[in-house]
Amino acid sequence: MDVELRGITKRFGPVTANDNVNLTIRAGEVLGLLGENGAGKSTMMNILSGLYAPDEGEILIDGKPVRFEGPGDGIAAGIGMVHQHFMLVPVFTVAENVILGVEPTGRLDYLDIATARRQVRDINEKYGLQVNPDALIEDLPVGIQQRVEILKVLFRSAEVLILDEPTAVLTPQEVEEFFGIVKSLRDAGKAVVFITHKLHEILAISDRINVLRGGRITGEGDPKSLTENQLAEMMVGRPVSFDVARGPFKPGDTLLEVNDIVVLRDNDEVAVDHVSFHVRSGEVVGIAGVQGNGQSELIEALTGLMHVSSGEIDFLDNDITHASVRERHRLGMAHIPEDRHKSGMIGNFTIYENMVLDSYYEDRFSNGPNIKWPEVLRTAAQYAIDFDVRTPSVYLKADNLSGGNQQKMVVARELERVTKLVIASQPTRGLDVGSIEYIHGRLMNSRDEGDGVIIVSSELDEIMSLSDRVLVMFDGRIVAEFDAIAGPLDKNAIGLAMAGVAA
Amino acid sequence: MSDTTSQSSLTEKLLQRAAPGRAEFEDLVVVPIFAVIVALIVGAFIMLATAVDITTIGRSYVALLQGSLGSLNAVSETLTAAIPLVLAGLGLALGFRAGLFNIGAEGQVVVGGIAAVIVGFSMPGLPWIIHMPLALLAGAVAGGLYASIAGYLRAATGAHEVISTIMLNLISYRLLDYMLGLSWMQRPGRSDPVSKSVVSSAELPRLLTDIDPNLRLHAGIFLMIAAVIVVYWLLFKTKTGFEFRASGENPYAARYAGIRASLIIVLAMGTAGALAGLAGANQVLGVLDRTTPGFSAGIGFNAISVALLGRSHPIGVLFAGLLFGALEAGGRQMQVDAGVSIDLIGIIQSLIIVFIAAPLLVRAIFPWGFARPAGRRE
Amino acid sequence: MTEITAFDIAPAAKLDTHKARQARIYGFVLIACAVLVALVFGYGTEGGASFGLSRPRDEWVIPNLVIPAGPFNYVAAAILAFLGVRQFMRGGSKWSTISIAVGLAITVAAFLVWATAGKSFSLVGMLQATMVRAVPIALGGLAGVLSERVAVVNIAIEGMLLAGAFTGALMGSLLGGWGGLACAVVIGGLFGFILASLVVTYRMDQIIAGVVINLFVLGVTSYVSSQVFQPYRYLNNAPVFRAWKIPFLGDIPVIGPMLFNQNLFVYGALVLVGVATYYLFHTRYGLRARSVGEHPQAADTLGINVYRTRFINVTLAGMVAGFGGAWFTLGTVGRFDENMTGGRGFIGLAAMIFGRWHPVGALMAALVFGFADSLQQKLALLRTPIPSEFLAMAPYIATIIVVAGFVGRSRPPAADGKPYVKER
Fold first, then answer.
1. How would you classify residue C281: left for phi > 0, otherwise alpha for psi between -120 and 50, otherwise beta?
2. A12 contacts in B (CB within 8 Å)?
3. Given CB atoms, is C83 within the 8 Å cutoff of chain B?
4. Contact B256/A373, CB-based, under 8 Å?
């Protein structure tokens, strides 16, 4: 089945997400769609799958124009999408998730789970997916959840599979396995659209590449004849350097000493399992690992948001194991949270209010019970200038900023306090290349000025390019440590450690 | 960065406040006006449906206007009715700002009233300068503590305050029934549940008796104005207010910023309850002189509407409270003049809130009243 | 190639786990109960408590159960103390929840024995009343389950009950019982539909929408009852559905009167709970409804219409609540009084939470509340030293305890209370 997009334009209010896009998808071929965050890749694919309606342009299937009124129509036409954020119901079983919307039923609308289970097994066998149809989604690792997503699409006999950033949550080895699945799908005659912003992946898997920038197709080519640098330039519109400028490595005293800590989740599961490590001043420690292996809980324990059940945390020679969040802030801990919308900022507050969210109580901003708003305003404007937050006014609501500017606002707030240790969790997730470069530069700046920096990221490339030392977490434990100063990091070894295989 | 003049001009630019746009104007002025008009129209239809004829409907709306604004007495009645609504409404608004949906103002009014009446009748001989503030304080403290129960349960166990405050309301009614039967509380020589009367040293003095002894407006109005100012200051000028608002808008971010969520919840609930308790004390000390079953008269529930209509802003609450006070004073006149039950006012009030809380609905009914909505990017 | 399934033995045993903390709290509660039972209900209590298990006119009359009050309560206290100490000693075992449930039941039993000491008390009458009084709460809870399973928080159940009660009385007076019942169901459904429009179409805050519907219904029903019912009393005089005894089953001692000699509403509630369970957990549309409550975006991407699903289920919830509301008038007195639901809708919400968002769970929880409700009524007859006002608070206090104790330990549908904004 061949699909063609012709002259597709989609606007969200004043923003044009897709501008006159043309694209052809052919059966038995992997089409790589490259673009940085915000380039309009996802919008385009949501249009193709029927989730969004285009403002202009048309979709042709095998040469015939079609109109999708909703996602059901996309599926019916044989177009299936695996979303970047999985669309799975966590408390349902695999079989229930797979059949949802196209359920086999008996009399009285009775849900025929037995048939569903059998059908799931059949597809499992055909494509070598190996998923237990009775497992609950929430119990499955993300790699398997992704296979469930693919199962869902295949169950609906999709001929075109759209994979939106499918490798973001996988270890390097899982990526290899995943590529195997993609190839078997292609060889079975399916059309696959592989969306990513990772250059080496798109070169490895695609038969043909399209590059999207600012909502337009800016390049097209053959992976055999393109280099990563050429692709990067097409994607960003200017030459990009992948190296982060940094000063010489001059580690100082130990700032943070984590000694054998255990952190429990609400349901008494062990999230962090007897973890010990230290951070010195002037050093970047990267914590790698597949999402959900205890990194988030470790960070929450370090910052005082989760209770430490046993063990000890020392910071600047103070025992802070049970200190409050604010006490830690006062000692010089800065925290850039992993989810800025949920916990990093208050969308309905103005920029100036967000800029003092964790420093409003300091003497420079307050006087007895009162907050010195004029002082806050002046400072916030200064921060916005210093950190390149592009906004017409500090009175603007934070929600109205772009993602990159929101994150810069959060980074400004955290780094402009008196800091000794900067904890950055997924500091550049979902940002454009310009903002990523800027934030990386700022973090390196903190390191060069003698702060200790902890970076947690699910992007292994980010960890590898920033860290002086890499710790790998698996199943709540630190299973490996790599030194980036002695020699170049071995991506393969880190990947194996992320999967829990001892090096 | 080297050019300091351009730097400071950039700062100046960032400090420019955008002029209030049409959207704010529509939100704060157009929507409420439409809401009131539509509610009155729907109210007329409901009267029609219950076989009230057109002339009586006309007469009742005239009476509504006369009873609320038509004379000095009407204005006095409007203000008297508005005082407790504004006080309790301020408490609710404060809770809303902190993300707490406190439906328990009614119970807090009851408990505050009980405490105020006890202090009011049990300490004769105190000079008024001590006795009256003491009685008011007792009401505020009782209301605050009562609300803190729900706040504590929310903070400690996650029990949703909507259900726990409703249960506390129901419990407060039984508590009132019980206390009115106690020998030291009941008015001597009465077998029906009526408390002793407040002695004059604890009463909020009436202000306009020199003009006409029937004018009921009392010193509680100063309390109301002071409360509006204090709540405004608290919410928008202080650290505590900042913490309330941050917790209310995004509790996760507030926690990450080192704001202690559980403390804020208990504090906000307590303050809200204190204001509602003050409203109850105000009724007992300024208007009723005693407590009877049902003396709270739904103030706590109407205050929810007042807080919503006032957009949880102290100034807005003041105006909304005045409107609702007017509806209530006018409603009594309406019942007398046109024989239409005052319960109609309750319907009109709830309809106003429907339209306030669902601006999209008002836009759908009056598309010509609004600028074309600019698409928003999510 | 990756084979990492072997988990270490969790070292959580000596850690300060949530379970251990919870067990300590439970142990403390149980021991406090033991002390209460021993000192207040046991000490100085004399005579036997006589519980009636059948009524004189029953097919099979079984003798009264007579319990020596003092000794019984000392034994009860001993069991409670044992359970409490066990919680402290071996905290966090899987028996925690059962222990606390058994412990509370024993405490209630001890209280009853104490209150009845030297008197007699019709247990079967109270169980029958429990069932009856559980009906509006169970139906309110069921309405809550139906709407929260599609992620619409339904504070408006109270208003829907009240609307059902009012309509039942008015239309029942005009059209007879069945007509009144049908109209009550329709009106309940109408308010469900209105709630759905407000929160789904007009994206009003769900709690505000619920509160407003409650205020509106209260306003309209009070207005009409004072404006219309006062002068025209025949409009507020509906026939009442009498109990239908199911042959044979209704004669079984204790259980018969409780389950098989009741009116339409009790049977209806039981059937609706069964139907709702089948619908939610064994049908295609139930699966879709639950997916909308858990992950609406996922449902949407699979072509399930989130808005329509919410409309349908919230309307159904309203119809269930309308039926439950009719109980107040057509099932009991045939007359409507202002605000006669008295917070039962909110207690229904608590039953829903207690019942873990499951129809059967909600029914069981409703029975607990129904028991508290009928207990306070019957106890008033026994003239205990406890003032009747405090007994009347019992269901409300029980609700608070349930909500405080069970929230967070049972998991609501993931998207509960969140509007779904579809982008097009």
1. alpha
2. 375-378
3. no
4. no
Mean model confidence pLDDT for chain C: 85
**ipTM of the complex in this document:** 0.84
Rounded Cα gap, residues A78 and A88, in angstroms: 20
Which chain B residues have a beta carbon less than 8 Å from that of C396? 167-168, 170-171, 174
User: What CATH class does B28-359 carry?
Assistant: mainly alpha
A3-236 classified as CATH 1.10.10.250: no
Contact check, Cβ <8 Å, C215/B46: no
Nearest to C298 among A89, A270, A474 (CB): A89
A243-332+420-503 has the same fold as A3-236: yes
Give the per-residue pLDDT at C207.
84
Domain boundaries, chain A: 3-236, 243-332+420-503, 341-417
In the prediction, which pLDDT does C423 show? 62
DSSP B97-136: HTT----THHHHHHHHHHHHHHHHHH-TTS-HHHHHHHHH
Report the predicted TM-score, pTM, of the whole model to 2 decimal places: 0.87
How far is the C-alpha of A45 from the C-alpha of A163, rounded, in Å?
Answer: 9
Nearest 5 degrees, angle CA A294-CA C417-CA B355?
145
Q: Tell me: the pLDDT tens digits for A308-322?
A: 999 999 999 999 999
Does the distance separating the beta carbons of C212 and B361 come in below 8 Å? no
Q: Can you tell me the distance from the alpha carbon of A316 to that of A255, in angstroms, rounded to the nearest whole number?
A: 5
Q: C238 near C335, Cβ under 8 Å?
A: yes
- CATH fold of A243-332+420-503 reads Rossmann fold (3.40.50)
Class of the CATH-defined domain C125-406:
mainly alpha
pLDDT at C7 (0 to 100): 35
Q: Any idea which residue has 């790599």 for tokens?
A: A482
- CB distance B274 to B281 below 8 Å: no
Q: How far apart are CA A453 and CA A69, in angstroms?
A: 49
CA A80 to chain centre: 22
Residue A242 confidence (pLDDT) above 50: yes
> For B21, which DSSP code?
-
pLDDT tens digits, residue range A20-57? 999 999 999 999 998 888 788 888 888 888 888 899 99
Both structure tokens of A30: 């992997």
Partner residue opposite A393 with nearest CB, options B18, B245, B377:
B18
Q: Neighbouring chains of B at 3+ CB pairs within 8 Å?
A: A, C
Q: Which helix (DSSP H) or strand (DSSP E) does residue C31 occupy? A: helix C18-36
- Give domain limits for chain B: 28-359
DSSP code per residue over C398-420: HHHHHHHHHBTTB---TTTT---
Q: What are phi and psi of A478, to 5 degrees?
A: -90, 115
Asked if the model's pLDDT at residue B50 lies above 70, the reply is yes
Q: Where in chain C are the domains?
A: 18-118, 125-406
* CA separation for the pair C56, B286 (Å, rounded): 58
Inter-chain touch B50–C399, beta carbons under 8 Å: no
Cβ–Cβ below 8 Å for A264 and C18: yes
Alpha-carbon span A436 to A236, nearest angstrom: 12
Give contacts of A49 with chain C, Cβ < 8 Å.
Answer: 301
Q: How far is CA A391 from the centre of its chain?
A: 25
**Of A251, A249, A209, A255, whose CA–CA distance to A232 is shortest?**
A209
Return the minimum-mean-pLDDT range out of C190-199, C254-263, C266-275, C282-291: C254-263
Q: Which of C14, C282, C287 to mutate to test the interface with A (most CBs of A within 10 A)?
A: C287
pLDDT digits (tens, 9 = 90+) for C270-325: 999 999 999 999 999 999 999 999 999 999 888 899 999 999 999 999 999 999 99
Integer angstrom CA distances of residue B313 from A147, A432, A497, B280, B317? 51, 38, 55, 21, 6
Interface of B with A in 17-76 (CB under 8 A): 17-18
